[in-house]
Amino acid sequence: MGNLKRVLLSMLAVALVGVSPTLRAQGKTEILWLGQSATKITTPGGKVIVIDPWLTTNPKTPAGFKRLEALGKVDLVLVTHGHFDHMGDAVALAKLNNVPVYGPAGLMQTFSTLGLLPAEQAVRFGKGGTVTPLGPNIKITQTHAEHSSEMAYKNPVTGKDEVHVGGEPAGFIVELENGFKIYHMGDTGLFGDMKMIGDYYKPDLILMPIGGHFVMSPKDAAYATREWLKPKYVIPVHYGTIPQLKGTPEEYKAALGSTNTQVLSINPGEKVEF
Questions:
Q1: Within 10 A of 254 (CB to CB), how many other CB atoms are there?
Q2: Distance between the two ends of the chain, CA-based, in angstroms?
Q3: What backbone torsions phi and psi does residue 86 show, to the nearest 5 degrees?
Q4: Is 73 within 8 Å of 49 (Cβ atoms)?
Q5: Would you call 76 helix, strand, or coil by DSSP?
Q6: Using CA atoms, how far apart are residues 255 and 249, in angstroms rounded to an integer?
Q7: What pLDDT, in 10s, does the model give residues 213-271?
Q8: What are the backbone angles phi and psi of residue 214, rounded to the nearest 5°?
Q9: What are the CA-CA distances from residue 165 to residues 151, 160, 169, 182 (Å)?
């Protein structure tokens, strides 16, 4: 009987080696949306990634999260571009948790040149580049975004407003330990290579801007979803924060029509699990 047990355990071990990482992973993925594009991702292995943290002055961020300490442990900060509503609290959050900020090379160069963060904490990488700051099982790839990225800055010495290089705007494909892929689009309008991103990276979940004016409208976002990206899930973001961002999830869903994509319309401060 003892020999039989050893044989069965050996067969099970061999079988598990051939099972995909998705099936082997036990933890859940948690997505907490905090208004505009601010997103907290908790990975199946317990790592915490915060993307585009604009919280303390964000009118849509719930009061309980306007204190950066309320986010708890943070392992990594990602910033898609240099506009205040995406990088507003990135430096403070990185300092609070003693963690790096990764983002477009030009923007990170500006961070370090202005002395906002030391170079080792403002990590440059470029479109198409893949980085693994949280270990080899979490891969982060920078993608194109159709937007701008100038960085407004008030000089603490002169008190004057300045505009600095913000690098090129970007999005991120975040592949987690279990193979689940999240595409945070940043701010973007339509661009044809969204089809390539959908075909090549095959994101499971997309954080998709729908507000219009500065980003895709609900109609544009629906076209990108249906024709090019075809994800399993979409969380609409970047709407309703200022008057110009008029697009709504209802308009997006109406424009999307019948589709296999599940639209998860949540409010700031709410989370979903996968």
A1: 12
A2: 40
A3: -125, -30
A4: no
A5: strand
A6: 10
A7: 999 999 999 999 999 999 999 999 999 999 999 999 999 999 999 999 999 999 999 99
A8: -100, -15
A9: 6, 16, 11, 27
